[in-house]
């Protein structure tokens, strides 16, 4: 069901790859809620993914290739988006993350530091660069909303999540620090959403992901949140209903983050004792 929560709003969605990605589902919901937006991803992701299919599903949204670690590319995304959409931007989604160490199965204690720096640059500093570019160009309207997607590994240790955990911790810190600056300067809201383990293309590449997923499902009182449910939540953060929410890391995980143990898990452990 649509509520026209984003009617008349203009946005930029970074990171949609295929129908499994959260950015893909968020784009679909934003379109259903009345928004117009551009889509952006790295050139290699544009070649490998299905973003043109997503564009067609979203009113032929314009696709703009960009390396999210390049300030020049990001400034181009904002400049083009303002021109294409006919005005300044009301919301931005940052759904960007990649770890060469994870892809190459390099253990955290044996990390390749050149890879580590790439992880931080792509998965965290790009969030800062997106907002720095927007602020430099005065590209966002007052009360605009910027959301980055995170994971609870920023607070707790999950074997196999590797240096992405450090990147997510930095992402959340950037949301607080930049949120303060952007709030005073332009009333722009900046938040991160810490989502349940979700069966995305990127998430499934993390070692032990299936175990993470099933453990969280058994521990969470409401069960894991799906990508579609994440999209519903992010839409509310882009809307005018959350104007005074900023600098927060918002858990969208069925209660997992604040549950010590569940009866189901205790019973299962007793059976296996």
What does this structure look like?
The chain has 273 residues and is of the alpha/beta class. It has one domain: Rossmann fold, CATH 3.40.50. It contains ten helices and seven strands. It is globular, with a radius of gyration of 18 Å.
Write the topology of this structure.
Layout: E1 10-14, H1 22-32, E2 36-41, H2 43-48, H3 51-57, E3 63-65, H4 71-85, E4 89-94, H5 100-103, H6 113-136, E5 140-150, H7 164-186, E6 189-195, H8 209-219, H9 227-238, E7 249-252, H10 263-271
Parallel strand pairs: 1-2, 1-4, 2-3, 4-5, 5-6, 6-7
Helix pairs in contact: 1-9, 4-6, 6-7
CATH top-level class:
Alpha Beta
Classify the helix fraction into a percent range: 40-55%
Kindly report the CATH topology: Rossmann fold
Secondary-structure element sequence? EHEHHEHEHHEHEHHEH
Structural class by SSE content: alpha/beta
Question: Which strand order spans the largest sheet, edge to edge or round the barrel?
Answer: 3-2-1-4-5-6-7
Count helical runs: 10
User: Which homologous superfamily in CATH is the superfamily?
Assistant: NAD(P)-binding Rossmann-like Domain
Count of beta strands: 7
Taken together, the total number of domains comes to 1
CATH-derived architecture: 3-Layer(aba) Sandwich
What is the straight-line distance between the termini? Answer: 46 Å
């Amino acid at each position: 069901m649509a509520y026209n929560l984003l009617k008349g709003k203009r946005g930029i969605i970074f990171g949609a790859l295929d129908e499994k990605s959260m950015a893909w589902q968020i784009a679909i919901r934003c379109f259903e809620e009345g928004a117009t937006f551009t889509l952006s991803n790295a050139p290699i992701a544009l070649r490998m993914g299905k973003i043109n299919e997503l564009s067609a599903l979203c009113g032929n949204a314009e696709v703009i290739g960009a390396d999210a670690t390049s300030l020049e590319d990001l400034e181009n995304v904002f400049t083009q988006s303002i021109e294409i959409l006919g005005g300044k931007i009301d919301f931005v989604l940052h759904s960007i993350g990649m770890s060469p160490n994870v892809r190459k199965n390099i253990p955290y204690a044996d990390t390749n530091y050149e890879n580590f720096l790439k992880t931080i640059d792509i998965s965290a500093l790009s969030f800062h660069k997106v907002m720095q570019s927007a602020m430099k160009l005065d590209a966002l309207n007052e009360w605009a909303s910027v959301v980055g997607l995170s994971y609870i590994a920023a607070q707790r240790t999950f074997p196999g999540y590797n240096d992405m955990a450090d990147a997510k911790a930095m992402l959340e810190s950037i949301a607080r620090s930049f949120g303060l600056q952007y709030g005073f300067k332009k009333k722009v809201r900046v938040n991160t959403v810490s989502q349940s383990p979700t069966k995305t293309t990127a998430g499934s590449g993390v070692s032990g992901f299936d175990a993470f997923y099933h453990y969280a499902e058994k521990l969470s009182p409401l069960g894991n949140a799906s990508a579609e449910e994440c999209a519903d939540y992010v839409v509310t953060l882009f809307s005018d209903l959350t104007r005074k929410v900023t600098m927060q890391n918002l858990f969208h995980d069925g209660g997992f983050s604040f549950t010590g143990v569940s009866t189901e898990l205790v019973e299962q452990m007793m059976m296996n004792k």
